[in-house]
């Protein structure tokens, strides 16, 4: 493997590659994210943004209390988010735990959702605290069950203690398993990475190792997908594109609960990575409650009055 | 002491237990009966209403679950707090409406008494209107009044404080949560009453108070799908019909009141009937 010619797989070359990265101006990133959050998106642009955001949602349920019935209901909703309005697009994918992948795939196919992917959270999600053979087995299990996207977590302990090569090798191994069968999303859990410099470092590490997507968080840790963190990651994929001519996707997850937040994310994407990234194949939003708010805002734009949560499904 | 700079109060909205400015950034002028400028309260927008409804909806299950005893205590607490700040309310009423001190004193006293009166109803209303219905089978069949959900209200222009209390108390005492638009010309007592609410153990979001124009806010209240009932006592007669038609589209209960009585509480309650087997 040549890793885009950026590293040769040795510890030394990886350390050199990461050391060469420019640092992140924390105050500047916060200020720019705050400035972009003030953009006002109205009328036709807002309507476009709502539909685009719906098509980018990774409709997620990652609870210990998940049942087959709940996953099936979620899949039905993923294909046809508003049963009364066929002009609402399907979401990007459903995101479930490994043991629910087969259920989700089967039910999606049953309700006409062949175009909706199933993302599985693997490698001992959410903590990532398991041995490598277990992580590989975990991922293989999800792939065999029909997952088209693998959301893996990195070993934050190894990353924070400077064992970058361990993190790198894990991603390489999981990527090799996924091959052409599944997209690989790498979750950093930015709430545990402490600094923006670390987020940038983790982004470049994951991209060189073969990630198709970089994802902020598991949704189990607060803070999750804050605007400056997403900005830093979008800058990373933009810079990586100029280095390698390959576009890597970004997936913020956790804490994006309403339409306003989702539209702010789209503004960030457009102004940072560029309009090429405004597609579900390069930008996803991991969420559960968000979809209902998007639907209610859409109803408001169509009907001219405020909608009620009583008219959308309870998740 | 004479060269002290005036400390003027900024009149803001009361949403979800906090005092935000209107998202629109707009204000309007309130003048005294003699035409002297008094204050610049917020001119609330439909988006402030939307935020207030979200807060009220979130607060409703918790408030509804509070015991009748607890709800009564909290309403009584409102009366206690209002009593303690009597002088401020008397001053504000005189400043805005130009009435005599005696009249203002009377309005504040009546407001306090009214709160105590409605507080007393909290644990009695279901005995008054509930029923044990005769059925042809081995069952108890009860009908119990329950809260309706989120209610919006337009408070009357005058009297600004007593009218507001008469609007707020009967709606919340049964477990509803409320978004109320205060008197447009005399919103000062309403916003000071918000300070009373904020210090009275009323959970955040149970009472939300907006200030602004009736013609702007009322149609949005009527058409809002997540508001279950609407008190239009404060609306002028000419726009009643339009509001009633708009509210009927989403099956909203709409009432206008002329007096205060337990019927005002029951207006925003729904009857639930329960069957309970007696056994053999």
Structure characterization notes:
The complex is a heterodimer of chains A (315) and B (280). Chain A is an alpha/beta fold and 315 residues long. Chain A has one domain (24-311): Alpha-Beta Barrel (TIM Barrel), CATH 3.20.20.70. Chain A has 12 helices and 8 strands. Chain B is α/β, with parallel strands linked by helices and 280 residues long. Chain B has 10 helices and 10 strands. The mean pLDDT of chain B is 95. Classes of the chains: A alpha/beta (315), B alpha/beta (280). Chain B: Residues 30-254 form the Aldehyde dehydrogenase domain.
Task: Break the fold down into its secondary structure elements and pairings.
The complex is a heterodimer of chains A (315) and B (280).
Chain A lengths: L10 H9 L6 H11 L6 H14 E4 L7 H12 L13 E5 L3 H10 L6 E6 L9 H13 L4 E5 L2 H5 L3 H15 L4 E5 L8 H14 L3 E3 L11 H18 L4 E3 L7 H14 L12 E3 L1 H15 L12
Parallel strand pairs in A: 1-2, 1-8, 2-3, 3-4, 4-5, 5-6, 6-7
Helix pairs in contact in A: 2-10, 3-11, 3-12, 4-5, 6-8, 8-9, 9-10, 10-11
Chain B lengths: L29 E2 L5 E3 L6 H20 L2 H17 L1 H12 L3 H21 L3 H5 L1 E2 L6 E9 L2 E5 L5 H13 L4 E5 L6 H11 L8 E4 L3 H10 L5 E3 L8 H10 L3 E3 L6 H6 L1 E9 L3
Parallel strand pairs in B: 5-6, 5-8, 6-7, 8-9
Antiparallel strand pairs in B: 1-2, 3-4, 4-10
Helix pairs in contact in B: 2-4, 3-4, 4-6, 8-9
InterPro entries (chain B): Ald_DH/histidinol_DH, Ald_DH_N, Aldehyde_DH_dom
GO molecular function (chain B): oxidoreductase activity
Pfam family, one (chain B): Aldedh
